[in-house]
Design brief:
Elements lengths: L1 H27 L14 H4 L11 H15 L18 H20 L15
Length: 125
């Protein structure tokens, strides 16, 4: 049971870190007007089937995924089909998307005061 709790806690921490990357990426492009692109490509512009981490810079997607993998103590193939990362065949990938979506909602609903993108906000406790 302790191993499962560790995976859940590590996953939650990874999700919060990823939210900081997403916020930084979105703010970096804040000066763009509709129809123009400022800065690097986003993940959704460069990779196939990006559904949740759409707004992070494409060059940060792989490091973010590596961080999540290391935090959970699993290999990429735990969530992804080897050689076909765009496929949605594995349940852990769907679960991760739901968790990241929940984290985005929690942050948006509870931490609107957070104007700084360089600070990671964690709930107390």
């Amino acid at each position: 049971m302790m191993g499962r709790n560790w995976v859940l806690v590590s996953g939650a921490v990874a999700v919060f870190i990823i939210s900081g990357i997403v916020v930084n990426g979105a703010r970096a492009r804040g000066g763009a007007t509709q129809g123009t692109t400022v800065g690097p490509k986003t993940a959704v512009q460069q990779f196939k089937n990006i559904q949740v981490l759409k707004d992070i810079p494409a060059d940060q997607l792989i490091p973010a995924m590596q961080f999540i993998s290391a935090s959970l103590g699993v290999e990429c193939e735990f969530c992804h089909v080897e050689g076909a990362f765009e496929k949605d065949d594995k349940k852990p990938k769907q679960t991760a998307r739901v968790m990241v979506g929940m984290m985005f909602t929690i942050n948006q609903d509870n931490f609107r005061r957070a104007a700084r993108s360089d600070v990671l906000f964690l709930p107390p406790g």
